[in-house]
Design goal:
Length: about 425
């Protein structure tokens, strides 16, 4: 994340016709981000969710069958966990894993364990119920992603194999004891949180290469070359992979062979003369793709053909990976934070702002929905929960910085800037397995 923050500070443009340069970086950014107006094409294909009162939301298993296997929870990266019972404060701290190394991305859960990758590329296996460290494995010098979990194996992307290096690595690690099952060196760095689906692993890299590897042995099945660095995770829906890159392009490619379905650009940056960049991992829902851009806009594209459905501006960069949810009392909404210090809820169909909440600071990381609560973190170390339908504050703590929480429906695992905390949302969860 430090690297992309440096990249996005390179905001220069020359006004046509000999106009004077805008004085001051702050004024320049403000004018640049307001250069493009909002666009709304709500009639672009939209699959409205079916709402029934007879069917209760899915209920996370409070036993060994439950997993939060990927960054974003599901393959579509919706970052939403439906709950049969709402989570409400007070949230009692159950255990903490403290440290001094940056925790930029959240853990994944599998069985009795959770797994966290620190920015020094150290991977930990912890007891989900006590926080006890079961094992620890150093996989390189630098990392900035969440692992993927499936069938007793963890899949991990590494930015740098050695200090100062420009080459990355992807590794498969046994979830029970941390031993390496296979490892594949990469010619470029990668901070793309991997996606595991159908026995294959999908991720991007800084030289623009998108990979499909066979999960069993790491062999390359296909590659696709994008126009810029692919730092975000890929989202999967309907047999297609969706992602954005640093050239300001959004892509849909076939999961089976990597062949391109569509590719679309933007014109939101540099006074409409070039694109901003996509760092955010997209979310796919309702036949749409949603993702934010450093030009200050949130975008929605048709998942079928890439038609622009809407573009809605915020006051600053949108690094934040969105969440998508349909909670009681609101239409389907897309949630994202902005560097302008505001948390936004956008109508998923039209892009109109349903509500906005003044956050405690700049929002850089992704958004998570647990039941009917929305969680975000700010760069000045707050993590806050809002009512997802209303935007009203429910709870806040002085912990966090980037990606806020994951959950098993009973506990909330809060990602502090350097520490991980387990919070019990209720005094007792029925069916909770023995603590070990």
């Amino acid at each position: 994340m430090i690297a992309w923050m440096r990249t996005h500070r390179r905001l220069t443009a020359i006004l046509a016709g000999g106009l004077l340069l805008v004085a001051g970086a702050g004024a320049f950014i403000a004018i640049q981000l307001s250069a493009q107006g909002d666009v709304s094409h709500p009639n672009v294909a939209f699959t409205a969710p079916v709402t029934t009162t007879a069917t209760a939301p899915p209920k996370p298993a409070r036993d060994l069958s439950f997993s939060w296997p990927l960054y974003g929870y599901d393959a579509a990266r919706t970052k939403t966990l439906p709950l049969d019972r709402p989570l409400r404060p007070p949230f009692r701290r159950d255990w903490a894993l403290t440290g001094s190394v940056l925790l930029e991305f959240p853990p994944v859960l599998g069985g009795r364990s959770l797994f966290i990758l620190k920015n020094n590329a150290a991977l930990y296996g912890l007891s989900r119920f006590t926080g006890a460290v079961k094992w620890k494995r150093h996989l390189g010098a630098l990392a900035a992603s969440s692992p993927a979990y499936g069938a007793g194996t963890l899949y991990v992307t590494i930015l740098a194999r050695e200090s100062g290096g420009r080459a990355g690595r992807v590794v498969a690690v046994a979830a029970d004891d941390g031993h390496i099952r296979w490892s594949r060196p990469l010619p470029s760095r990668t901070e793309s949180s991997p996606l595991l689906a159908g026995g294959h692993l999908y991720f991007g890299s800084e030289n623009g290469t998108v990979y499909s590897l066979r999960a069993a042995d790491g062999s390359v099945q296909w590659t696709y070359k994008a126009g810029g660095a692919v730092k975000a995770g890929l989202a999967l829906s309907g047999g297609r992979l969706y992602f954005g890159d640093y050239s300001g392009q959004v892509y849909a490619i076939h999961q089976s062979d990597g062949h391109q379905v569509w590719r679309k650009g933007t014109s939101g940056g540099a006074f409409g003369l070039s694109s901003g960049t996509f760092y955010a991992t997209p979310a796919v829902a309702y036949g749409r793709v949603y993702l934010g851009n450093t030009d200050g806009n949130m975008y929605s594209y048709s998942a079928t053909d890439g038609s622009l459905a809407w573009r809605t501006g915020t006051g600053n960069y949108v690094y934040s990976s969105p969440a998508v949810a349909h909670v009681a009392g609101a239409p389907p909404l897309v949630y994202a934070g902005s560097y302008d210090g505001t948390m936004y809820a956008f109508d998923a169909r039209s892009g109109k702002v349903r509500w906005r909440h003044a956050a405690e600071g700049k929002i850089s990381g992704g958004i998570t929905i647990l039941g009917d609560l929305l969680f975000y973190s700010t760069l000045n170390h707050h993590t806050t929960a809002l009512g997802a339908a209303t935007g009203r504050k429910v709870w806040t703590t002085l912990r966090g910085a980037y990606n806020p929480v994951v959950s098993d429906g009973c506990r909330i695992f809060l990602v502090g800037s350097t520490s991980l905390f387990s919070l019990k949302a209720r005094p007792h969860c029925s069916g909770d397995p023995a603590r070990r």
